[in-house]
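Please discuss these two lines.
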Amino acid sequence: MTKATKLTSVHTLPRNPGMPLDMGLIDGIRINRSAVERRAATIGTRRSVKKAWQAAWLLRAVSCIDLTTLAGDDTPGNVIRLCAKARQPVRQDLLESMGVGDMHLTTGAICVYHNLIETAVRALEGSGIPVAAVSTGFPAGQIPLELKIAQIEGAVALGAKEIDIVISRGLVHTGNWQALYEEVAAFRKACGESHMKTILATGELGTLTHVAKASHVCMMAGADFIKTSTGKESVNATLPVSLVMIRAIREYHEKTGYKIGYKPAGGIRKAKEALTYLSLIKEELGDAWLHADLFRFGASSLLADIERQLEHYVTGRYSAGYRHPMG
């Protein structure tokens, strides 16, 4: 591998200002599930990257990880440790062996609960790594609107540069697209300069048509990213859902000229899966989306498997999993 510079490129693009709700477009959306599933089934089989190319793609994946801890037993110590891993996600000796020791590799962000924002901000000071905070009654979103907005404003005041909000899924099931648009637009206003990642909780939306419609409504309301899942649903990121959301992003870009980011979250644990998602992004959206300002993985254990695969690339041997902790 050749020398490389820092991979992360966070928030350098013009932000999506949103647009008026276009109900003509929303009403006309119909998704053919069988066709989507057939296309999704081919993604992992038609492309294969090996050796140095695979190592390079895995380094790219690392730079796009939102290293996440959203557990009930989170402590400041856990978050400080995770932030240290975000600063140095891959062992320096492995990077040196690959000839990229000077690339200043970091993860895309750290994602935590509201009460640990200050801890993460202090631990990441000077690194350029943003803190993302889950908000709006995450994960269920079943609290009043005024409390959701207060949570966002509080997270921004504490230093969160990215806010992961959850939509009210009931508005999707009842087809109340106007109310969903107004809710997300209010969240975007509360975020101010902090970027808003809009979680659809696709595993609870029922149909791919609902996923597509919700994706478009959220982008029209000003979402900077659309994200599959909270990671707490019984079904999280899947390739069919990702294909629908990515094509919605492509259509929005063609219509408005604004690039919206995409974040699959929940259940992506293996390096091979990360490569499949990167291939999907490259095929459907192009190389411009293969950077942290437009693509993220919501993950924690994924990093451990990527580092293990990189060690295999360097040494030819697989190490024990316990040698590569989550963070």
